[in-house]
Amino acid sequence: MTGGPMGHLKLTAVTKSFGTAQVIKPTDLEIEDGAFTVFVGPSGCGKSTMLRMIAGLEEITSGTIEIDGKVVNDLAPVKRGISMVFQSYALYPHMSVFENIAFPLRVARLDQARVDALVAKAAAVLKLEDRLHHRPGELSGGQRQRVAIGRAIVREPSVFLFDEPLSNLDAALRAEMRVELSRLHKRLGNTMIYVTHDQVEAMTMADKIVVLRDGMVEQVGTPLELYHRPANRFVAGFIGNPNMNFLDVTCRAVAEGAVRIALPDGAEAEIPVAGAGVAAGDALTLGIRPDDLTIGGSAGAQLTIVPEVVERLGNQTVIYTATENGTPVCVVGGGFEDVRPGQPCAAGFDPGDAHLFRPDGAALGRTIDLGRLAELA
Amino acid sequence: MINRYKWWELVIIYTGMALFLAFILAPFAEAFMVSLRPLEKVFRVPYRFLTEDMTIRPYIDMWTSVPGLWRYILNSFFISCAVTVLALLCIIPAAYSFARFEYRFRNGILTAFLAVNMVGAAVLIIPLYKLMLSLGLLNTYWAMIIPGAAFSVPTGIFLMRSYFLRIPRELEDAAYVDGASRLYTLRRVILPVALPGIMVVTIATFIAAYAQQFLFALTFNSVTEYHPLPVGLYQFFGRERVLWNELMAASLVGILPVLFVYVFLQKYIVAGLTAGAVKE
């Protein structure tokens, strides 16, 4: 941490409407100094709109946005102390890399010596020193992205906003830039807000993830919290790759700290979750992650599945299967799983790994040890 | 790209192009040939394309037959330049506004502009004359420049607007986030990026202005010194005879400024200056 400008962001009852459509429902959100926060959600969930509202590119319909305790609703972006990196890089094609990075400083009418010093500093951070006299058109995708970041960091704002900055890069470069961005965050220590639809980016970079759907915050938490204790079925399905499997089950009995359910094929299992608001006979949804299923496993509960497509990746096997009543189930097993398409087999799971959701989508509280997660964070 | 044409298809395509070009260029070729012939041989029967008596005399004599020729060519060039500058000063802000801002009647105003183009200058020449008369602009350069610019503005706006629309909005957002004002952004970001488009509009306007000045000059101006070339050429029409060869020579020389401008600026049309701004 540099101890430089930070940025504490607070949204209170913020909404946004376009005409009669409310694209951001009333939202409260607090982002601490220096946190790397990721807004994630499917396309059209309002995450980019939210970011543009924080940036000052979109007006907010109601509510307040505070940065470092100051209401910034009506302030221009530069007065808010934010800077932004755009999805398309938005570099000025007719200017050299140097002038692109220097643009905010030129606008602020800094003298040449100061501009030189600040650009040199930003270029050093981003390893762009020997590219300063090139035009953006002569650079590779990753370098252009770094120039865009350089333009954002050069005036040392307290909050950085990233709008899907890596979505134009190929997979290998994206992985590399992910690491570079995390490194940059450690080095600068500023608040960063990062919008993406890619949950891998969210999981790998975030201190805190904000999951959005249809203009509503579904859950806020650390990546591991979201993974292990999703608040609802949407978050559970969104976080984790491949996606969580969902099976329709029936509640048989509710006990202290456990719910007994009947699986589709009639077998029963006892899932260790808080059964508040659930009664015997309720239709529930069982959530189980692909890597928590074991082919032929004898652990706790069993499903009968028919593999349809088997993808062998070497270190692991991704098996796309269906249960007898046609519900798709994905299993991630070891590299040497003995499965063949069309040949039914059993898949077992530890009831402790399972999630249960009420019909309204809310998750039943799991008893996972969050202390252990906090240690990892 | 794979060459997907058969040989006979290529023959048809090139024949078509040759016919088309011949149709377009034949008048120029004939004008050039006439300009090289002695006057008495211009109407020779039977017609011969190439003859031994060809001479460049008309190109020399035309300056003495019509002593004001220099002046007319310069007038033409000056009027077209002035029209282009004035038109661009209106086109660029208007097109930017049509491309970027939301306001009531925006599309209606744009349609109205284009509708003016459909009516054309010739229909409006009498009201325009009255207007010029009451403004006291008759028999000045302004009488040719202002209407010329006014009639090039609608097409220019249309061309320029479509160019501005192609510039990604994120470029402006980025400049705005960095604290730049609208005008600063327009000057430092949008105009340089739109330069190829501006060049296209400049060339189109210049050529249109060069071609259309005849009507306004003939109607609004009777001062010989202010005449542009198309009107000045009438002085080759004598009492007893028309100096066809010198007339053609003067016309061809008169085209040179346009040709010069076109050759000089056309590289901007091709230049892909937006390369690298955003992902394609």
Structural overview:
With 377 residues, chain A is of the alpha+beta class. Chain A folds into two domains: 9-227, P-loop containing nucleotide triphosphate hydrolases (Rossmann fold), CATH 3.40.50.300; 237-376, RNA polymerase II/Efflux pump adaptor protein, barrel-sandwich hybrid domain (OB fold (Dihydrolipoamide Acetyltransferase, E2P), Beta Barrel), CATH 2.40.50.100. Chain A is built from ten helices and 20 strands. Chain A has helices at 47-55, 77-80, 97-107, 112-125, 141-153, 171-188, 199-205, 223-228, 233-238, 370-376, and strands at residues 9-18, 21-31, 36-40, 62-67, 70-71, 82-85, 159-163, 191-196, 208-213, 216-221, 245-255, 258-262, 268-271, 283-288, 293-295, 301-312, 316-323, 328-334, 345-349, 355-357. In chain A, strand 9 and strand 10 form a beta hairpin. In chain A, helix 3 packs across helix 4. Chain B has 280 residues and is mainly alpha-helical. Chain B has two domains: 7-58, no CATH class; 59-270, MetI-like (MetI-like fold, Orthogonal Bundle), CATH 1.10.3720. Chain B starts with 6 loop residues before the first helix and ends in a 10-residue tail after the last helix. The chains are: A alpha+beta (377), B mainly alpha (280). At the A-B interface, strand 6, helix 3 and helix 5 of A face helix 7 and helix 8 of B.
Topology:
The complex is a heterodimer of chains A (377) and B (280).
Chain A: E1 9-18, E2 21-31, E3 36-40, H1 47-55, E4 62-67, E5 70-71, H2 77-80, E6 82-85, H3 97-107, H4 112-125, H5 141-153, E7 159-163, H6 171-188, E8 191-196, H7 199-205, E9 208-213, E10 216-221, H8 223-228, H9 233-238, E11 245-255, E12 258-262, E13 268-271, E14 283-288, E15 293-295, E16 301-312, E17 316-323, E18 328-334, E19 345-349, E20 355-357, H10 370-376
Parallel strand pairs in A: 3-8, 3-9, 6-7, 7-8
Antiparallel strand pairs in A: 1-2, 1-4, 4-5, 9-10, 11-12, 11-14, 12-13, 14-20, 15-19, 16-17, 16-19, 17-18
Helix pairs in contact in A: 3-4, 3-5, 4-5
Chain B: H1 7-35, H2 57-65, H3 69-100, H4 106-119, H5 125-135, H6 142-166, H7 169-177, H8 182-193, H9 195-220, H10 229-232, H11 244-270
